[in-house]
């Protein structure tokens, strides 16, 4: 079986300032991987490069074995890459349901015969969204907005979900609900999940594999079941 995604020697830059160097890793269906590192090491840049919001300045990105390095972000979302950006970026003046419907645009794949309504699975994973479906997203708590942002990405039925610091500023009981939901996304839907995180406990508990970045490079990687979180804490915490 071909991998879901492969990164080969990927680099990225903002103008002349190179931020990513030689990043390489593979993802399979249903994988859960976390990208760790201090502020400013390039984690968000990596996720934006995978999503195509920032063009790779070198290297190659493959999806099911096909090169997508030059593909535009909306096309990447149509082939099955979902993105929950840092800060969530929900539409405050739209209702919860309308925000979720925005996520359906990713289903406009050529020949895709999928549903044209938000899949029930999204409400099943986040029951709170059913209760607040008619409310304007701008008035929701941070935890509700995060559930909405994840639900919106899932409405597009991705095969890979990219999440940038999903636990940032969220109270612990909601973090637990998000973790439980993401676990189900993986096991029940076989969606691969890549999470950029500062919360080492959450990252270790959720992910099977970890990558640690320093100054735009992957400096350490491994399996969370084999290594203790203490072995990377000094590379992650300031
Ligand atoms: N739009 C931009 N233009 C220029 N430089 C940028 C831009 N965005 C990020 N950078 C720089 O790129 C480097 C990596 O930033 P990035 O946001 O990817 O790091 P990060 O590891 O995600 O950090 P954080 O945890 O703070 O989000 C930093 O030096 C940052 O200042």
From TrEMBL:
Record-annotated ABC transporter domain positions: 5-238
Transmembrane segments: none
Record's keyword annotation contains Membrane: no
PROSITE patterns: ABC_TRANSPORTER_2
Similarity comment: family membership: Belongs to the ABC transporter superfamily.
Matches recorded under PANTHER family: HIGH-AFFINITY BRANCHED-CHAIN AMINO ACID TRANSPORT ATP-BINDING PROTEIN, HIGH-AFFINITY BRANCHED-CHAIN AMINO ACID TRANSPORT ATP-BINDING PROTEIN LIVF
UniProt protein name: Branched-chain amino acid transport system ATP-binding protein
Keyword Transcription regulation (UniProt): no
């Amino acid at each position: 079986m071909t991998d879901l995604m492969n990164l080969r020697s990927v680099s990225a830059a903002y103008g002349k300032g190179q931020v990513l160097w030689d990043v390489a890793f593979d993802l399979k269906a249903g994988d859960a991987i976390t990208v760790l590192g201090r502020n400013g090491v390039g984690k968000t840049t990596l996720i934006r490069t995978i999503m195509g919001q920032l063009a790779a300045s070198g290297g190659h990105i493959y999806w099911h074995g096909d090169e997508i390095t030059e593909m535009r972000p909306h096309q990447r979302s149509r082939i099955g890459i979902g993105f929950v950006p840092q800060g969530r970026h929900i539409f405050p003046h739209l209702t919860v349901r309308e925000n979720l419907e925005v996520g359906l645009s990713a289903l406009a794949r050529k020949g895709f015969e999928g549903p044209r309504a938000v899949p029930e699975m999204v409400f099943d994973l986040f029951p709170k969204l059913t209760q607040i479906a008619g409310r304007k997203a701008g008035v929701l708590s941070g935890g509700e907005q995060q559930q909405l942002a994840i639900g919106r990405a899932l409405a597009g039925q991705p095969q890979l979900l990219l999440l940038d610091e999903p636990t940032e500023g969220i109270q612990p009981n909601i973090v637990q609900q998000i973790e439980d939901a993401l676990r189900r996304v993986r096991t029940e839907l076989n969606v691969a999940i890549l999470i950029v995180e500062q919360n080492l406990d959450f990252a270790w508990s959720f992910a099977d594999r970890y990558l640690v970045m320093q100054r735009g490079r992957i400096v350490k990687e491994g399996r969370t079941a084999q290594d203790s979180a203490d072995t990377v804490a000094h590379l992650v915490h300031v």
